[in-house]
């Protein structure tokens, strides 16, 4: 794994945390100060970076497995081991904590079939399940797209013709139905622009692994990608929204440029974010992504219970900084003490491999 990309992963996860944290601080039931929701109102764009990065990582790690059906079992084992154990531990912890609390009991589903679909990251209609299609852990809707991408990549490994058929089918649906208002589920899930981001990441990986292509000035791509990313973010933060319809694709393109530049720079020995702390945060980013939303909710309630809201903007600022720090610390501890040992055990038992982060 490239150290620069690990640092990028850490930053993307922190952007998502700051997006949700600012939004919660701004809620009337907590501090009701809208200014906290503005600076990182673009923070959800960390998801777009994650999707492009995921396409890059999977293609880089498994490009030699394509059209090699005997590699399918190993691929599936690695992907499921990477996603499900951490997700299940956090999901079940949040679920049973909510069930045990009379105040939170009605915030989680009680329908067994709905819970099972959530546990296995089966896409669900967001109008029915939790507002995002992922009750309990609302951010898990992104993992549903991740699993869909893994599913398609499995076809790339299994069969050339099946993968072509699947690709053409998705392309046909996208050309004919994407952008159509009020699409019903599951087309409303399948035909989001997010799936294109994985393809962008795969393309960047293919370019980076081509020996004939080497950027003489790799940081040029990082700077251009970062400037484009910030331009889109500015459009979002200022609520101008000129780029709103193309925001996902543009964030994906900007992320692609950044990833390409970082990889090419690291090949030349130039590493951005190689500090140990950034690497640990990058390693912990999956745990941070999953754990931060319920933790923010709990800590915001705690802030109100100790009457920090009585201090106005000072109390909100204290809560904002403290909660952000607690989210980072909790994710690192969870990664080092739980996630890493569990995955190491599963990989050692099932594949005879030591733990490696993706």
Instruction: Give the integer mean of the pLDDT values.
Output: 91
Cα radius of gyration in angstroms: 21 Å
In sequence order, what are the helices and strands, one letter per element?
HHHHHHHHHHHHH
Morphology call? globular
Tell me what you see in this structure:
The protein has 13 helices and no strands. The protein is globular, with a radius of gyration of 21 Å. The protein is mainly α and 358 residues long. The protein has one domain (3-350). The model is unreliable at 351-358 (pLDDT under 50). Helix 1 packs across helix 11. 67% of the residues lie in helices and 0% in strands. The N and C termini lie close together (8 Å).
Would you kindly provide a brief summary of this structure?
With 358 residues, this protein is an all-alpha fold. Helices cover 67% and strands 0% of the residues. It is globular and about 60 Å long.
Key traits:
358 residues, mainly alpha, 13 helices, 0% strand, disordered C terminus
Secondary structure blueprint with pairings:
Elements lengths: L2 H23 L20 H17 L9 H29 L11 H8 L21 H18 L1 H18 L9 H4 L3 H15 L9 H20 L9 H21 L8 H8 L1 H21 L7 H38 L8
Helix pairs in contact: 1-2, 1-10, 1-11, 1-12, 1-13, 2-5, 2-8, 2-10, 3-5, 3-12, 3-13, 5-6, 8-10, 9-10, 12-13
């Amino acid at each position: 794994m490239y150290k620069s990309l690990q640092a990028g992963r850490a930053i993307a996860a922190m952007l998502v945390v700051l997006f949700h944290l600012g939004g919660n601080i701004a809620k009337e039931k907590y501090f009701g100060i809208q200014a906290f929701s503005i600076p990182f109102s673009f923070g959800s764009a960390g998801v777009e970076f994650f999707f492009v990065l995921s396409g890059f990582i999977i293609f880089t790690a498994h490009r030699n497995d394509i059209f090699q059906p005997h590699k399918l079992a190993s691929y599936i084992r690695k992907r499921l081991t990477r996603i499900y154990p951490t997700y299940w531990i956090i999901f079940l912890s949040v679920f049973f904590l909510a069930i045990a609390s009379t105040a939170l009991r009605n915030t989680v589903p009680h329908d067994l079939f709905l819970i099972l679909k959530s546990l296995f990251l089966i896409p669900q209609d967001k109008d029915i399940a939790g507002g995002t299609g992922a009750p309990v852990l609302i951010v898990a809707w992104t993992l549903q797209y991740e699993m869909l991408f893994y599913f398609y990549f499995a076809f790339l490994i299994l069969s050339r013709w099946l993968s072509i058929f699947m690709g053409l089918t998705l392309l046909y649906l996208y050309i004919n139905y994407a952008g159509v208002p009020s699409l019903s589920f599951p087309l409303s899930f399948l035909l989001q622009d997010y799936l294109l981001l994985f393809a962008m990441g795969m393309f960047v990986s293919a370019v980076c692994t081509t020996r004939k292509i080497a950027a003489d000035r790799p940081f040029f791509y990082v700077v251009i990608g970062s400037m484009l990313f910030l331009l889109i973010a500015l459009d979002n933060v200022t609520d101008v929204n000129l780029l709103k319809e193309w925001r996902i694709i543009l964030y994906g393109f900007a992320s692609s440029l950044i990833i390409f530049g970082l990889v090419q720079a690291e090949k030349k020995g130039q590493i951005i974010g190689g500090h140990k702390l950034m690497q640990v945060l990058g390693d912990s980013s999956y745990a941070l992504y999953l754990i931060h939303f319920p933790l923010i909710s709990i800590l915001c309630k705690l802030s109100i219970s100790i009457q920090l809201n009585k201090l106005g903007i000072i109390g909100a600022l204290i809560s904002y900084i403290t909660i952000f720090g607690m989210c980072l610390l909790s994710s690192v501890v969870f990664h080092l003490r739980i996630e890493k040992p569990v995955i190491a055990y599963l990989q050692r038992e099932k594949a005879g491999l030591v733990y490696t982060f993706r």
